[in-house]
Amino acid sequence: MNAKFNLSNLTTWRDYLFIVVGLIIYALGFTAFLLPEKVVIGGIAGISSIIYFATSDYISPDVPVVSICNFTLNAILLTFAYKIVGRQFVVRTLFGVVVLSLVIGLFQPLFTEPIVKEAAFMNVIIGAILCGIGIGIIFIHNGSSGGSDIVAAMVAKYTNITVGRTLLYVDMVIISSSFILFHSLEKILYGFVMLFIFTYVTDLMINSNRQAVQFTILSKKWEHIADVINTQAHRGCTVLDGIGWYTKEEVKVLLVFCRKIESVTIFRIVKSIDPNAFITQGNVNGVYGKGFDRMKVKVKQEETPSQS
């Protein structure tokens, strides 16, 4: 008799290890390349940076202002997001927030000056790429660094807007607000350059565009797999009848559509139930219908003939 399957059991220590790696890469890009250039980025880290720059003349450099503000503001945001994104996301995000705050507090005193001297633009590009890679790794392994990620998760729960696009909208507002502090268009432009590179790399890493994938699954445990995909991954399955021509035996074929960011979850479900299952995955240019995108086409209505 099979033990009861729970999707949470699929999250192993490897996920948390990669989440920590992603957080370290993100913190490195932020503290080593962006913060010394006084470039305000988006998210809670950006707000924390503004607070840090505004209070730098009054608070000792030994006080990790960015780290403290990052943790405090994220804790407040998570309190509001609890009912929307659920307990599991909040726990994962809290883990990311704590680790990120600690790493930023550790790295900030080490990088008091830009690594690349007198090359602000190069520092911004390198910092943006590192931050995008870090966030991408975090999302691939179902983690979060908090801040705009929380907002993106709440928006993604009810819409088809990509994570990168949501981060773009939220962060543009935060970056623009830095003009109040610095009165410098140059800093804002650097912030926008960072933002666009960061969101592009993030989307590239986690494949969170509107494209979907199609799974074809052949397994003797097809009923169990289909039930778990329905209940845990919240995706539908279509069961097709087929014949294995080599064995001349009837088989059941599962057809599953999901978004690219969910493909790892589908693979984990299938392999945890039947390691010998036969799986194919193919890219789909568009999936339209319930749970996916809406068809944005106009249908010409037939004219009703007038009665004489």
Q: How much strand? A: 5-15%
Mean pLDDT: 81
H/E element string? HHHHHHHHHEHEEHE
Please estimate the helix content. Answer: 55-70%
**Can you count the helices?**
11
Say how many strands there are.
4
User: Can you list the strand order of the major beta sheet?
Assistant: 2-3-1-4
Largest sheet: 4 strands, antiparallel
Structural class: alpha+beta
- Shape from CA axes? elongated
Low-confidence stretches: none
User: Termini, distance in Å?
Assistant: 73 Å
CA gyration radius, whole angstroms: 23 Å
How would you sum up this structure, described in words?
With 308 residues, this protein is of the alpha+beta class. It is 56% helix and 11% strand. The protein is built from 11 helices and 4 strands; from the N terminus they run H-H-H-H-H-H-H-H-H-E-H-E-E-H-E. It has helices spanning 13-34, 43-55, 65-85, 87-107, 120-140, 148-158, 163-177, 179-182, 185-206, 222-231, 263-273, and strands at 212-218, 237-244, 249-259, 278-284. A 4-stranded antiparallel beta sheet has the order 2-3-1-4, with helices on one face. The longest helix has 22 residues, at 13-34. The protein is elongated and about 80 Å long. The termini are far apart. The mean pLDDT is 81.
